[in-house]
Amino acid sequence: MNLTLDNFFFLAGAGAILLFGVFILRFVLKFAWRFIRVALILISLILVAGYFLGFLDIILRW
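Request: output the structure for the sequence above.
Response:
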């Protein structure tokens, strides 16, 4: 394989982007999970409050 200096820098740059991409993805997912978790809690509270206050008519068949 002919590994010239140009190809070497290209491969090193690609490896660095992949390495830093993993850390950036971890940060983004951790940040997004906070908002998703808060949204799910708020939706569940709204559903429970709406059911008990009579705003939502949810029929539970047992």
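The chain has a mean pLDDT of 87.
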